[in-house]
Design brief:
The protein is an alpha/beta fold. It contains seven helices and eleven strands. The relative contact order is 0.18.
Length: 309
């Protein structure tokens, strides 16, 4: 969620950029190939499960991102659940009109663990989180919960979110930007091995607890350093659908440069894309102008998870 997109020149420069303090919480193109999204049938799985297909087989995901308690961390904290749903419904209609016949599933994308100085983590109040999960269950919205990791191990961090997988609309995310003990001073890093270990732990948990189908795990990246040895990241787990999301804001050419950098990682074929609204916050970055839904779908490869912050 760093407020800039990285150009090819910036990638070569290999220099991290600054972090505006307001991003702490307030007290802080082409259609894809369906074969990429196959979920194993019941007889192929290690435990008997209901037969399900991947959400991404016929649908894209459109999400509003943020923290419910922060107006500075995204749209999610600026409106009530009902108003967010209404706005998301209108935006989903715009995407559906240019989606080429694919469905558009709505989602709330919630910051679960927020990094603090020295890399400590503040966890969202469970009662507040459940308010969004339960609303999603009754109004057909997916919920993504995102951990910023901080000073902690990515596997331990993702395990903290596992209990919420018992809710069928919940999916997980990790944000390597904030895997650091010096937030706002340096860009954080995870390794390919850590991402693979996190996926394995997630899949093992789902099997052990007989959680059916597959769940998504989103990994954010806008800078070369955020994922070390990224060519070694696996995306072939049976129960975990890895989504590689291009983060960062700026002018359209910067957004496209950032996405093109992520597109080079063909070992992570399912891509995501984030856009940033301009809420008039002094010092805050934003997309100027926002790409239209048609322009988003024209990115190559086409993103399947799209979020607005």
């Amino acid at each position: 969620m760093l407020p800039f997109s990285i150009s090819a020149q910036a990638v070569q420069a290999q220099k991290p950029a600054g972090f505006p303090a307001l991003y702490f919480m307030d007290t802080v193109r082409s259609l894809g190939r369906p074969g990429n999204y196959r979920v194993l049938q019941e007889e192929e799985l290690p435990v008997p499960l209901e037969r399900e297909i991947s959400i991404l087989l016929n649908n894209d995901i459109l999400a509003f991102y943020g923290h419910p308690n922060s107006v500075n961390m995204g749209i999610l904290g600026r409106y009530s659940i009902e108003e967010l749903d209404a706005r998301l419904t209108r935006l989903a209609a715009e995407y559906r009109a240019v989606s080429g016949g694919r469905g558009v599933r709505k989602a709330f994308y919630i910051i679960f663990g927020t990094v603090w100085p020295q890399g400590e983590i503040g966890i969202i109040n469970e009662e507040l989180l459940m308010k969004y999960i339960n609303y999603g269950l009754s109004h057909d919205l997916l919920i993504f919960i995102d951990h910023q990791i901080g000073r902690y191990n990515p596997v331990d961090s993702i395990k903290r979110m596992f209990p919420f997988l018992r809710y069928p609309n919940v999916h997980l995310a990790l944000d390597p930007e904030w895997r650091t003990t010096k937030p706002m001073q340096e860009i954080g890093t995870v390794t390919a091995e850590e991402i693979n270990q996190a996926q394995k732990a997630m899949e093992d948990y789902m099997v052990a607890n007989q959680i059916p189908g597959e769940r998504m795990l989103v990994i954010h990246q806008f800078n070369w350093r955020m994922i070390k040895n990224r060519e070694q990241v696996r995306a072939n787990f049976q129960r975990v659908r890895l989504v590689h999301c291009a983060d960062g804001f700026g002018a359209p050419h910067l957004k496209r440069d950032s996405y093109a950098f992520n597109a080079q990682a063909g070992n992570m074929p399912v891509k995501g894309f984030k856009l940033f609204y301009n809420f008039g916050i002094p010092g805050a970055g934003y997309d100027n102008p926002l790409l239209t839904p048609k322009q988003v779908y024209e990115l190559n490869p086409r993103p399947y998870v799209i979020m607005y912050q």
